[in-house]
Amino acid sequence: METDKSGPKKKIGLLGGTLDPIHYGHLRAAEEVYEILGLDEVWFVPAYQPPHKLTRHLTPFKQRFEMVKLAIRGSNHFKVKDFEARRKGVSYSVDLLRQIKALYGRQCLFYFILGTDAAIDIESWKEWQSLPSLATLVIVQRPPVSIKEVKTRFSEIFPDIPIGQRTDVGEEQPAIIMLETTALDISSTNIRALAGRNRSIRFLLPEDVRSYIMKNKLYMKDYTDKICRPDNGQPVEGIDAARCIYDQILNNKGEQIVVLDMRSISPVADFFIIAQGRSTRHVQGMASRMKRELSRQKIKCHSIEGEEEGKWVLMDFDDVVVHLFYEPVRIFYDLEGLWNEAPRLVMTVDGLKPEEKDE
Ligand code: ATP
Ligand code: MG
Fold first, then answer.
1. Helix residue ranges per DSSP H, the chain
2. Is 248's C-beta closer than 6 angstroms to any atom of ligand 1?
3. Are 36 and 180 in contact (CB under 8 A)?
4. What DSSP string runs through 64-81?
5. pTM for this one?
6. If you measure from the C-alpha of residue 308 to the centroid of ligand 2, how many angstroms do you get, rounded to a whole number?
7. Are residues 168 and 251 in the same domain?
8. How high is the mean pLDDT of the chain?
9. Is 114 in the pocket of ligand 1 (CB under 6 A)?
């Protein structure tokens, strides 16, 4: 029989994500969790192909990995791991945690670190119900979503799992820890947008990472999401807003997205975007997450209707009007049929472009 002579298990924090690029938001959160929970190490695990970001250009794994390496140089308790690149394909957290647990579960306890923005969307993740049994979930502050909001939601969706602060929850048992860490409103999206416009990104991320970005001209050209999340408080308008909204629908697993160019047809809006969800709950969740995330990107939803029922939600973003449907209801209204005169736009690597018609 095998016996475990290795003594107490090592406590390992895991911070996954696109990390395109890594910044002080990630690093400070990891450092605080390390200190508060008395971890032995934190492993940064860049995703190979993140499931939520299938539309925008992604910096190659190797370069994102390299940037993490530069960022953590000198911090002995931080490590970078390439599990996701070895597995290839879409990087789902549940697969990562299963793999890590199988490999190291006998020697290590895992603490999966998540920002509140990611945590609040957890129900859209693959096999999300299994996550707490694979690692202790550690939720850290990430504006604009508060710890309180996540706590309320988590106590509904994980009713049997203790939710606490620090380690007042059993170490081997499934548990969720909520930490009021320093809220730093830094995001990779914003860094990419600044770099894309030749603006300074200094002091948002380690200097070595900044130099690497400059030297390798990352985010400078062919960079397709630089239109999102302007730093200057200016609203994002027209087709740029439509593109950001389209991305958000995709991120929320909206289906059958149709973009109509209404500029020559209706004075109401420049673009109509029609999409559907699999259930009224899916439509409701999609609408509320879109509203929140887009407001972060300075795209304001001026009015929203139908959210309570979720059969049909109308969201008015000024230049862009979004119609989200529960599938059977979409067929009934047949908006595409109603506006069949309107030219359609399709998503390309260069953004939304007129659809090419086969004559
Ligand atoms: P993007 O803007 O491209 O989505 P990001 O800045 O959100 O990038 P991710 O790589 O998506 O960074 O995030 C990985 C993980 O780190 C997620 O759990 C996220 O919630 C968390 N995180 C990101 N930024 C912060 C921050 N400023 N503070 C705390 N946690 C953060
Ligand atoms: Mg993110």
1. 24-37, 61-72, 83-87, 93-104, 116-119, 131-134, 147-157, 188-196, 207-215, 238-251, 280-296, 327-333, 335-338
2. no
3. no
4. HHHHHHHHHTT-TTEEE-
5. 0.69
6. 27
7. no
8. 88
9. yes
Residues 175 and 245 in one domain: no
Q: Which domain holds residue 266?
A: 238-354
Residue 319 forms part of a structural domain: yes
Give kind and range of the element (H or E) at residue 312: strand 312-317
Residue 102, helix vs strand vs coil: helix
Please work out whether the CB of residue 18 comes within 6 Å of at least one atom of ligand 1.
yes
Q: Which residue's CA is the nearest one to ligand 1's atom 26?
A: 25
The string of DSSP letters for 245-299 reads HHHHHHHTT-EEEEEEE-TTT-SS-SEEEEEEESSHHHHHHHHHHHHHHHHHTT-
Which two three-digit tokens encode residue 295?
């407001």
**pLDDT single digits (tens) 282-336:** 999 999 999 998 988 888 899 999 999 999 999 999 899 999 999 889 988 888 8
Q: From the CA of 16, how far away is ligand 1's center (Å)? A: 9
Chain-centre distance of CA 109, in angstroms? Answer: 25
Q: What is the CATH number of the domain that holds 164?
A: 3.40.50.620
What is the distance between the alpha carbons of residues 72 and 348, in angstroms, rounded to a whole number?
Answer: 36
Q: Is residue 313 in some structural domain?
A: yes
Domains contained in the chain, number: 2
Q: What are the structure tokens assigned to 49, written together?
A: 């192909």
